[in-house]
Amino acid sequence: MRVRPYHSARSTAAHLYHEDDECPAGRQLAWFDKVDGTEGCEPCPLCASAATPCPEHAAAAAPAR
User: Fold this and answer.
1) How far is it, in rounded angstroms, from Cα 26 to Cα 5?
2) Which helix (H) or strand (E) holds 23?
3) 7, 41 in Cβ contact below 8 A?
4) Alpha helices (H) in 1-65, listed in sequence order
5) Do 30 and 9 touch, CB atoms closer than 8 A?
6) Can you point out the beta strands (E) in the chain?
7) How many CB atoms sit inside 10 A of residue 4's CB?
8) What local confidence, expressed as pLDDT, does residue 41 receive?
């Protein structure tokens, strides 16, 4: 499920933000290391691949004809 974007507060962590609560990489972050927002980080590829279109906005996800 999509959640508000968050990233790691550690400077040694990958410079990625997560927005899927099922993301294995995001789940490995300790609660005290999670910071809300993207802070210029790149999107996590695992979160991006798991992204599903919102059912309320299915028309926006459909290709235009």
Assistant:
1) 10
2) none
3) yes
4) 24-27, 45-50, 58-61
5) no
6) 2-8, 16-20, 34-36, 42-43
7) 10
8) 93
Distance CA 36, CA 34 (A): 7
Distances (CA, A) of 34 to 7, 30, 41, 52, 60: 6, 7, 13, 23, 31
How many residues are given for the chain? 65
Residue type (1 letter), 34: K
Q: How many helices (H) and strands (E) in the chain?
A: 3, 4
Residue 64: predicted pLDDT? 52
Token pair in block for residue 29:
């972050």
Residue 14 carries which side chain, given as an amino acid letter? A
Q: For 8-65, write each residue's pLDDT tens digit.
A: 999 888 999 999 989 999 999 999 999 999 989 999 999 988 766 555 545 444 455 5
